[in-house]
Write a structure and sequence with these properties.
The protein has 489 residues and is of the alpha/beta class. The protein contains 22 helices and 10 strands.
Length: 489
């Protein structure tokens, strides 16, 4: 039986799937950091450029400070940064020099592991990015095989991508990344051996979701097939549309005869913490999901299904949901079978809704679909349907978007934004509105401690302070009594 290692995902993917990337801040991260360090994880799935932008925009916190403080608290557990192609925070494609600076600065601040998930599943692009990272540091680099269902994404497709990445001396391991939770145990039993046959002795990991109840079962099948590590979330941050729940996975793996060498007490503390955090903050907790065969048609991430229904309700056509689901499959085929992950999930869904609600299909085409068609996001997996491509290319807007300037080169950006800035501040100001970065800096250092048990008491105090009809408050519990009375003098 195999010795299975764990990558913990609550701070990044669990937080993103269940809490819209808003449930975790610096204080909530650092409070549990020493316990996570004790567990013995292979790595902690920690952040992405999107999460770094969220820290600035919604929390007014410095994401670089968060990385540094977490790295100091977890000196033996690598922190992972998920990279999705040549972009950093902003959606526009960045220059190689800009990306090299971003990767170099991430390593300088404490990122020790990179997961490379090109949204086109472009193995050559992942190899190029890995070479760039390795040139400036010695981080552990994992190349992603992004799983989806389509006529072109068969086992041979993934084996060829795996072969290219495994041949790179700059890629240390590979992982199957299943953002839609679509990998069944049956498919795992053909896919994993096909990949293992071409990657030699490089480790293979699996990252799946529980969206339609398949992720956890696939983990147990994968453990018998040579998977070296599984990626799981803890407590309330696991299950649902998130990753398989870590305590249940560990218990079942051991029952099935596998070895999982971790500190069980520390693991229990981590799970209890994320459950307490969710309860204190009113955040949703993941729960087991039923199988939904219709999901295989649209493959939308869980949050996107709600967005689709909201769009249809806003247009007063909720009864068209079935038609939109069917249209999603047609649009995806016509656009060359893009993988239904950010940013392509949003593109395909928006186009499908427009096709169903308009008088004619493709009478309205969003800018992002045009950018995709003219190669702003890389090469499509398969050529776009000729009639659809002809319609896109005939639009005046297509010519405008083809001529729009991309991100300026690094020296020009430095000159425009400020040559005196640190690399950290420069990267934020180059990719985010200046007023958001200013607000982050004005807010000062982020709090570093968080206690979910204090949340009810703090909420009560705020409610009392807002009232003008209360003159006396008495708090009593075993061995404790506190009385407060307003003073009129």
């Amino acid at each position: 039986m195999a010795d299975i290692r764990l990558v913990e995902t609550s701070l990044r993917d669990g937080n993103q799937c269940l809490w819209a990337a808003l449930g975790v801040d610096t204080a909530r991260t650092l409070t549990i950091a020493p316990v996570m360090e004790r567990v013995g994880f292979k790595a902690i799935d920690f952040t992405t450029s999107t999460h770094m932008g969220v820290a600035v925009r919604y929390k007014q916190e410095d994401p670089w400070e968060r990385i540094r403080l977490m790295a100091a608290a977890c000196p033996t557990t690598p922190l992972q940064f998920l990279s999705t192609g040549f972009r950093f925070i902003a959606w526009e494609t960045a220059s190689p020099d800009f990306m090299a600076l971003a990767f170099r600065t991430l390593m300088k601040n404490g990122i020790g592991r990179f997961a490379l998930a090109d949204p086109m599943n472009d193995a050559d692009s992942n190899v190029e990015v890995a070479r760039m990272i390795r040139k400036d540091g010695d981080a552990y680099i994992v190349g992603a095989l992004v799983f989806t269902l389509s006529p072109i994404h068969d086992d041979a497709h993934y084996a060829e991508a795996a072969r290219k990445m495994a041949a790179s001396p700059d890629i240390d391991a590979l992982y199957i990344k299943d953002p839609g939770g679509l990998l069944s145990p049956r498919r795992a039993r053909t896919l994993i051996p096909a990949i293992r046959a071409v990657i030699g002795d490089k480790p293979l990991e699996l990252h799946a979701h529980c969206t339609i109840g398949l992720g956890e079962q696939s983990y147990y099948a994968a453990a018998d097939l040579g998977i070296e590590a599984l990626q799981c979330a803890s407590g309330a941050a696991g299950d649902g549309t998130s990753n398989p729940p870590i305590e249940r996975v560990v218990a079942n793996l051991r029952t099935l005869g596998h070895t999982v060498d971790i500190d069980d007490e520390a693991l229990g503390e981590v799970s209890a913490y994320f459950t307490a955090l969710a309860q204190a903050e009113g955040l949703p907790s993941g729960h087991p999901m039923p199988y939904d065969a219709s999901y295989r048609q649209h493959q939308l991430p869980g949050g996107m299904v709600g967005t689709m229904r909201r769009h249809l309700a806003d247009h007063r056509v909720p009864h068209l949901e079935g038609a939109v689901v069917e249209e999603l499959g047609r649009v995806r085929e016509e656009l060359g079978w893009p993988i239904v992950m950010t940013p392509f999930a949003q593109m395909v869904m928006t186009q499908a809704v427009m096709n169903v609600t308009a008088k004619e299909r493709y009478s309205v085409i969003p800018d992002e679909v045009i950018r995709y068609a003219i190669g702003k996001f890389g090469r499509p997996n398969q050529p776009i349907a000729p009639d659809v491509l002809d319609r896109i290319m005939a639009l005046p807007r297509t010519r405008e978007l083809a001529d729009e300037p991309g991100m300026a080169d690094l020296p020009a950006l430095r000159k425009r934004i400020g040559a005196h800035l640190s690399d950290e501040e420069f990267l934020l100001r180059a990719t985010m509105p200046a007023n958001l970065v200013d607000a982050m800096q004005a807010a000062g250092p982020a709090p570093r401690r968080y206690d979910p048990t204090l949340r009810p008491a703090m909420a009560l105090i705020r409610q009392l302070l807002a009232r003008t009809d209360v003159t006396r408050v008495s708090v009593e519990k075993a061995g404790f009594r506190l009385e407060l009375e307003s003073c009129t003098d």
